[in-house]
Amino acid sequence: MGLRLQDRNWGAGNPMRLVRFLGGLLGIVGRLHKIFIETAPQKTGRDETRGDQEQKIMTSLRAISRYLLASLMVFAGVMHFVRADFFLKVMPPYLPCHLELVYLSGVCEAVLGLLMLVPRYRRLASWGIIALLIAVFPVNLHVFQHQELIPAPPIVHWLRLPLQGILILMAYGQLPQTKTTSNTSGS
Predict the structure, then answer these.
(1) Where are the domains of the chain?
(2) CB atoms near residue 128 (< 10 Å)
(3) Quick check: 37 and 119 in contact, CB under 8 A?
(4) CA–CA distance, 72 with 182 (Å, rounded to integer)
(5) pLDDT 10s per residue in the chain (187 long)?
(6) Residue 125 CB: number of other CB atoms within 10 A?
(7) SS3 track for 123-139
(8) CA 62 to CA 48: how far, in whole Å?
(9) In whole angstroms, what is the distance from residue 75 CA to residue 60 CA?
């Protein structure tokens, strides 16, 4: 009884349909986490230092950010197929092959969102998401310049622009951490 892709008015008149859809999406993300992500070894036998606690908090924040970004990307990608009419409406007229671009960007968003959850492909997914968000930014500028395309208060249109930057930072934050070493040799 869940949401079917052919339902065009997926949230109209029944917000619980959207809630069920998002719940299902988060369930899939949770299952993928159990499949692909190994749990970190637990520290035992000593008290945690302040640095250990900070590291644990940062690791948790990165994980939350990763799941949020992956969920947003998969959801947005799926919506390119569920509500292709909406995405076609906001396409700038100077771009060719509107429907094909809508579907292509939807596939890219969904695949990159899923790859973000696989440690082996996280670097690829991070750079792919960054590139995709930069590539679709002209669409957001087009919508900002033609606010009649999406009836909303002007503040919503203003906030959409920096949101792309926030998502880019979230993707960048998922890149593997590199250890820096200092050169302490005496010269």
Answers:
(1) 18-36+59-172
(2) 20
(3) yes
(4) 38
(5) 443 444 444 444 455 665 566 566 566 656 655 555 544 444 555 555 777 877 888 888 888 999 999 999 999 999 999 999 999 999 999 999 999 999 999 999 999 999 999 999 999 999 999 999 999 999 999 999 999 999 888 898 899 889 999 999 999 999 987 665 445 544 4
(6) 25
(7) HHHHHHHHHHHHHHHHH
(8) 20
(9) 22
Cβ pair 111, 102 in contact under 8 A:
no
Q: How far is CA 104 from CA 12, 21, 85, 98, 171, in A?
A: 26, 22, 14, 10, 20
Q: Residue 153 and residue 157: Cα distance in Å, rounded? A: 7
Task: Please report, as a single letter, which amino acid is at residue 35.
Answer: I
Q: Residue 184, Cβ neighbours under 10 Å: how many?
A: 5
Other beta carbons within 10 Å of 118:
15
Dist. CA 61–CA 174, nearest whole Å: 10
Dist CA 56 CA 8 (whole Å):
43
Q: 89 and 149 in contact (C-beta within 8 Å)?
A: yes
- Of 110, 106, 124, 99, nearest to 174 by C-alpha is 124
Instruction: Give 181-184's long-range contacts (Cβ < 8 A, gap of 24+).
Output: none
C-beta of residue 138 within 8 angstroms of C-beta of residue 92:
yes
